[in-house]
Amino acid sequence: MKVHFKILIIFFLFQTSYLFACSCSVMNDVKTEFKNSDIVLVGKVISKQEIDSEKGKINKFQVKVYRFYKGLNEKKTVAVYSPKGASSCGVNFEIGKVYILYGFEDGVFERYKTGKFAKSETYWTSRCHRNRKYSKQEISLIKKIATN
Between 20 and 30 A from 51 (CA), which of 25, 82, 87, 147? Predict the structure, then answer.
């Protein structure tokens, strides 16, 4: 009887952790991610701020833009938000690193877009998108897509 009870507890623990874990079914290819994004850029993360919102903690990253491939061409810096924590699929960029970022004005982040986050030009991203450290290979694919 004790063995069955222990197995039941272990099963319950695994099921509970699964319910609260981030799950990205499939990573989009470059063309699909570019098409679905509101902004695509190369930039250096210059600061990170943790913000309390009505729906949970959020990371705000200030990014010095080196090049826009889609979106706001005139901005020199842009704020990109992401839910904090792995269970919310939050991304944790490193300050001082250069990334290729794919950002969205809405979509899966609608639950966070209340109050001060409800304005336009508020960009969001997560681990489920193609964000990555700078890669010449990825940039060459983005350039081909951006010019077509």
Answer: 25
d(CA 101, CA 75): 15
Q: pLDDT tens across 50-102, in order?
A: 988 777 788 999 999 999 999 887 889 999 999 887 777 889 999 999 999 99
pLDDT in tens, 95-115: 999 999 999 886 555 555 555
Half-sphere exposure of 36 (CA within 13 A, CB side): 16
For residues 48 and 95, the answer to whether their CB atoms sit within 8 Å is yes
Sheet holding 132-133, edge to edge: 123-124, 77-83, 56-70, 39-53, 98-103, 132-133
Residue with tokens 């950002």: 103
Q: Which residue has the tokens 């699964």?
A: 18
